[in-house]
Design goal:
The chain contains 8 helices and 10 strands. By secondary structure, the chain is an alpha/beta fold.
Amino acid sequence: MSVLETKELNKRYDLGKQVVKALEKVNFIVEQGEFVAIMGPSGSGKSTLLHLIGGLEQPSDGEITLNGQRLSLMKDKQITLLRRRNIGFVFQFFNLLPTLSAQENITLPLVIDGKNVRNYRNRLDTILELIGLTDRRDHKPEQLSGGEQQRVALARALITEPAIVLADEPTGNLDSKTGMVIMQLLRRSCDELGQTIVVVTHDPRAASTADRVVFLRDGLVADEIRFESSTDTAQKLHVIIDKIEKLEA
């Protein structure tokens, strides 16, 4: 069953005398429980696509269906509620509130949505264990390393049991070793929690944790790779790098 589908998705920016095509006729499907990485050079439309499917921007043309709901038929307030209840976001910068503890930052989306945090206590404990921060749940962001803060941001995205998690360069503000820890946690959330994940990344090593890699170029879907579960990381990395080199040739 598909969680996300785009049909003939277009995004244009009117810059006065010039119209820039950020995305053109993008058809993109993500199945439930799938882990997809989106790659492409700067300006290829990666982040634009993520913003559109997350309801942060409106497409110029085309259709987006998220968790069975067509965004084009929804008003702004309905899209806001859909985004709050169906999408978890992870960004390059952690966006944690400095006055709140780790667990308070994690449960903030529940508070904003008027949910009773106590009803999510078991899920909070499960996620804290998954990200390895059970013993640091009461620490504030300034008491956590960058990698730990990104783990809190990931937990915040997972707490509402969203239909999909969208991550925009989640390793971009971290060193390579810490970045791979975050990608492995995303992988585990997919495998152990059944979470559907879409990650935008420029890093082939990060993309190698995914089930499928979609390549954008000049706003178009240029190619994609789907991996078998038996494919090891080294093989994935080799295939991804080879594909990037061919697309850039």
